[in-house]
Specification:
The chain is built from 9 helices and 32 strands. With about 625 residues, the protein is of the alpha+beta class. Strands 14, 15, 16, 17, 18, 19, 20, 21 and 22 form a 9-stranded antiparallel sheet that branches. An 8-stranded antiparallel β-barrel has the order 1-2-4-7-8-11-12-13. β7 and β8 (about 130) form a beta hairpin. The protein folds into 4 domains: about 1-20 and about 55-230; about 230-365, no CATH class; about 370-490, Immunoglobulins (Immunoglobulin-like); about 500-570, no CATH class. Helices cover about 15% and strands about 30% of the residues.
């Protein structure tokens, strides 16, 4: 079960992501060339960017339950169920969560760490509370058509679970009672669509964006970060910033027992601006359908007689998005052909080509022949000699299948600065795995004991990407370009018996002080020996916390175990030592790469990474 099953809650509101921006630029990692000017707020894409003193926090703001579904009944008012209007809030007994990029050269898998959420009516105890399992967003695309100055027009989706659930207060809510009974492993499934993010310091929306999401039951053994169901992929994978017809990839789940299909349109429909509204004048009518023939090539159009229409997507109805979180259910029980064939024919999202609906354009289609593979978790930080494991699931038309899955290097969606992916032997993994009868295999990625060295010179470790797909998937099939694994393999660092400030610790802490001035300017000057030794206890605590803790230091979670061991050993005996001789600036060799036409404020951003990745894919296809 998942958030697409019932019972489920839908919520809307805002989020705050107070991210730092200095660490988006690779050259700022070189402490020998960094200057205080690089920490200045700018609006032209230079220096410290638009939010150099960001704290890294991620929190929900003003989120309320705005809809629910119980069985086949949609609930939208308090009179129907008192869960409507309840607040989904952050924990009130700990700090907010943190938003973390994997690396300056991989900003497209931003993760939420250390966030706890609770549902409250403002009167009783929390109705429930649980920890958001750390997760990266996926399906990043340009969803917003028009923008104010500095707005982030990209949108994405987070899917995870709330774990360690505690149910305390009680209200007479049939939805909450059913949700508690339906869930397993003390977990709930949660999906959050984020969009409309404001980056202009002069507007009230600064560091705020909108969120619309769904919470549903979780079933033991299911994936935690995607739905084991039907996957539809945008028909224009070469450029995810401009999808055909303004529609992007999404997922569905078919319930053959109930003869319904639940489709999540929450992150795949274009919006006109940061308000999240759909443009009534330009948004086309959309229909979810099933092709009557399987076909050997992706479809661009179909005749009316070649599809069975499940129903219209109601996204232009008043209140639809808030009340449903973009999730819509389609009942196909009255159509005998659909009952007999929906499990073995591709799903399509259509819009009419002719006024009489005699033909349709195919905007998004299910993966060719129904083949699909997906890693549940898809981000890892890997120490030298360590092993990271990833649950891999293979399905055909949404059903688990025993099949071979191929694995290969995939660096297309990351990079743009110093060379990545080298040396190639710093991580190893099998080229192919066989999934079991439940459609599952476990991929083990092993880091060499020697580590990758320091190929990027002043950035610790190296980035690797692992792509995957079912061996049986046709070569001409559209694939989701975000379906790959991102790994940061740390460099090997051995702690000396007696580390000193100048030789071992200052180079590490100075870099963090440069990149995250919110701490150095307002709490501890991390590049200054006297300032640091005044705060030994708090630093020892912060560097000793588990990585899941919201107070973990450093917030970006890019400090290797070896360097952490050096810092902790030094904090117990803070020797100053002798200053090291000045060194020349370090300049890594940069690849020729690809050039894209960007506005100044698009530099050093997710937009730049996205556009360069699309350009690289186009070059590869040529």
């Amino acid at each position: 079960m998942s958030y697409l099953d019932t019972p489920r809650l839908h919520f809307t509101g805002h989020f705050q992501a107070d991210v730092s921006t200095i660490n988006n630029e690779v050259t700022f990692y070189d402490i020998s060339t960094f200057t205080p000017d690089d920490q200045q707020l700018t609006t032209d894409g230079t220096k410290g960017g638009w939010n150099p003193e960001g704290t890294g926090i991620f929190r929900l703001v003003g989120c309320r339950v705005t809809g629910a579904r119980l069985g086949n009944r949609q609930i939208t008012t308090f009179a129907e169920d008192p869960v409507i209007g309840m607040a989904l809030e952050n924990a009130d007994d700990r700090v907010f969560g943190k938003l973390v990029d994997l690396d300056p050269e991989q900003q497209a898998v931003s993760q939420i760490w250390g966030m706890r959420l609770r549902l409250t009516d403002g009167k009783d105890n929390d109705l429930f509370a649980g920890d958001f399992r750390p997760a990266a967003f996926i399906n990043l695309w340009r969803r917003q058509q028009r923008a104010a100055f500095l707005d982030q027009t990209l949108a994405a989706v987070y899917q995870s679970v709330l774990q360690g659930m505690i149910w305390e207060g009680h209200v007479d809510s049939a939805v909450l009672d059913a949700l508690r009974r339906a869930s397993a492993d003390d977990c709930l499934s949660i999906c959050m669509n984020v969009y409309g993010y404001g980056r202009d310091p002069k507007i009230p929306r600064y560091t705020l964006g909108s969120v619309a999401g769904t919470i549903g039951p979780y079933f033991a053994g299911e994936p935690k970060h995607f739905v084991l169901g039907r996957q539809l992929v945008s028909a224009t994978p070469l450029n995810p910033t401009v999808p055909l017809g303004g529609v992007y990839s999404f997922q569905c789940k078919v319930s053959e027992d109930q003869k319904t299909i639940s489709a999540d349109f929450g992150n795949c429909l274009q919006i006109k601006d940061a308000s999240g509204a759909f443009d009534q004048n330009t948004s086309p009518p959309l229909m979810l359908a099933v092709a009557k023939q399987e076909g050997s090539n992706p479809l661009s159009s179909v005749a009316a007689g070649d599809v069975a229409i499940l129903g219209n997507v109601n996204y232009l109805n008043d209140g639809w998005y808030a009340q449903t979180g973009g999730v819509q259910d389609f009942d196909y029980s009255a159509d005998p052909w659909l009952v007999a064939n929906i499990g073995a024919r591709p799903l399509l999202l259509l819009t009419p080509l002719a006024a009489d609906n005699s033909s349709y354009a195919v905007l998004v289609s299910e993966t060719l022949a129904g083949w699909y593979a997906r890693a549940d978790d898809f981000v890892a930080r890997l120490e030298p000699g360590a092993t990271a494991t990833f649950d891999i699931y293979a399905t055909r038309y949404g059903k688990p299948v025993a099949t071979a899955v191929n694995f290969f290097s995939n660096l297309t969606q990351m990079g743009g600065g110093p060379d990545i992916g080298t040396p190639t032997d710093a991580i190893t993994y099998p080229p192919q795995l066989q999934t079991d009868g439940h459609g599952k295999a476990v991929l083990s990625v092993v880091a060499s004991a020697a580590g990758p060295g320091i190929p990027r010179i002043y950035i610790d470790g190296q980035l690797y990407g692992i792509g995957y797909q079912p061996a049986a998937q046709p070569a001409q099939a559209f694939t989701n370009p975000w379906n790959f694994i991102s790994i940061l393999a740390f460099s090997r660092v051995d702690a000396p018996d007696q580390p000193t400030w100048h030789a071992n610790v200052q180079p590490i802490l100075q870099q963090y002080g440069n990149l995250y001035p919110i701490m150095s300017k307002h709490l501890i000057d991390l590049g200054n020996y006297d300032s640091v030794v005044k705060h030994l206890k708090i630093l020892r605590l912060a560097f000793s916390l588990p990585v899941e803790d919201a107070n973990y230091m450093p917030v970006i979670r890019d400090l290797s175990a070896g360097k952490r061991a050096i810092i902790l050993k030094w904090l117990d005996n803070p020797l100053k030592g002798e200053p090291s001789p000045a060194r020349a600036a370090l300049v890594p060799t940069k690849p020729a790469g690809v050039e894209v036409d960007l506005e100044p404020m698009q530099r050093r951003s997710k937009t730049e990474a996205l556009m360069k990745a699309a350009a690289r894919r186009r070059e590869e296809r040529k």
